[in-house]
Amino acid sequence: MKHSSLEDYEKVQAVLAYLYENWRDQPSLEDLAAPVGMTADQLQHLFTRWAGLTPKAFLQALTLDHARAMLKDSATILETSYEVGMSGPGRLHDLFVTHEGMSPGAYKSKGSGLTINYGFHPSPFGLAVVMVTPHGLCGMGFCDEGGQAAALYDLQRRWPNAHYMEDSAQTAPYAARIFAPDKWRDGQPLRITFIGSDFEIRVWESLLKIPMGRAVSYGDLATSIQKPKAARAVGAAVGRNPISFVVPCHRVMGKSGDITGYHWGLTRKRAILGWEAGQLAG
DNA sequence: ATGACATTCTTGT
DNA sequence: ACAAGAATGTCAT
C-alpha cells in the first residue's frame, strides 16, 4: 500500500463534506471531484491510494445498510471473549492494547502532579495530537485545518492541572505504531492509561471490545456495563473518550445504524469508518 | 418524517 | 445540593 499524506486526507474530507451537503442531488463522481479541483479520474486514484477502496466501495461502506450489518450481533460482541479487566488485553482483531486506570487521585485532582508529554504527528485523518504519561498513551485528538492550538487545548482542559511539555520524541513512536496497520500486531501491546471517572472508564473499557469492522449501539454499550437504561449517559461518556481512534468510539452508532455524533467531527467519523473498511478489504 | 419527553450520569454553580 | 446538558431511544402524531 502506498503511503497516504496529510493533503490526501484534506481532499477526502472535503469530498465527504461536500457529499453530505449535497446528497439530495445525487452527485456524480465528476460533481464530487470538481470542488476540490480534481478530475473524476484523479479522485478515483486518491481514494484507492488513501483508503484502499474505490470511491464507490468507500461510499458503500458508509451506507445505512452497511452500518446495520456492522451492528448485527452487536450485543453479543461486547460479551464475547475474555473479560477486559483492569489491565487486560483488548481490541480483538487489530491493535492490541493494555490499559490501566490512572491512580485514583490523579483524576480527582484533574491531573495535578502528572507530567504529560505531547506532540503533533501526521495521520491518515489529519494532524494528530498525541499525549503520553510514563504509564502510556493517555490522549489523542485530531486537528482541523489550522486548529492545532484548539486541538491541544481540547485535550489539556480535561486535566487542567497536569504539567504539559511538548516532546515529540516521546510521542512519535506511539503515532508511528497507531497509524501503521502492519505494525498493529507486532511485539508488545500498546500501553494506554485512562484518566476519567469510574463510569467513563467502564464505558471506555467496553469500547475496546469492539473489533474493527463491527459496531455497537449506545444502548448495547449501556447494557454491557449493567446499566441498560443509561444509553444517554453512555453517549455522553463515549463523547468524552480522550484517546480517539485507539479507543474506537467511532464504532458506536445509533440503534438504527445512523451515524450520529463525533467529538472530532462527523466527517472524520465517516472517514475513519471508510478507511477501516479499506484496511479490512486490503 | 418530526417532535416531545423519559431517563441516567457528570459537572459547574 | 441542584440544575443543565449530553455523540439516545421510544412513542405519538
Description:
This protein has 282 residues and is of the alpha/beta class. The chain folds into 2 domains: 6-60; 74-258, Winged helix-like DNA-binding domain superfamily/Winged helix DNA-binding domain (Arc Repressor Mutant, subunit A). The protein has 13 helices and 9 strands. The strands form 3 sheets. The chain has a 4-stranded mixed sheet, sandwiched between helices. It has a 3-stranded mixed sheet with strand order 1-2-7, covered by helices on one side. It has a two-stranded parallel sheet with strand order 8-9. It binds a DNA duplex (13 and 13 nucleotides) through residues 197, 199-200, 217-219, 222, 227, 229-240, 249, 252-256, 259-263, 266, 269.
Described by strand count, sense and barrel closure, the largest sheet is: 4 strands, mixed
Going across the biggest sheet, name each strand in turn.
5-4-3-6
Low-pLDDT segments:
82-89
Number of domains: 2
- The CA-CA distance between the termini, in Å, is 9 Å
Helix content estimate: 40-55%
In DSSP terms (H or I, runs of 4 or more residues), the helix count works out at 13
CATH superfamily of the largest domain: Winged helix-like DNA-binding domain superfamily/Winged helix DNA-binding domain
- What general form does the structure show? globular
User: Average pLDDT, to the nearest integer?
Assistant: 88
Radius of gyration: 19 Å
Percent strand equals: 15-25%
Structural class by secondary-structure content: alpha/beta
What's the CATH class of the largest domain, please?
A: Mainly Alpha
Number of strands: 9
**CATH architecture of the largest domain, please?**
Orthogonal Bundle
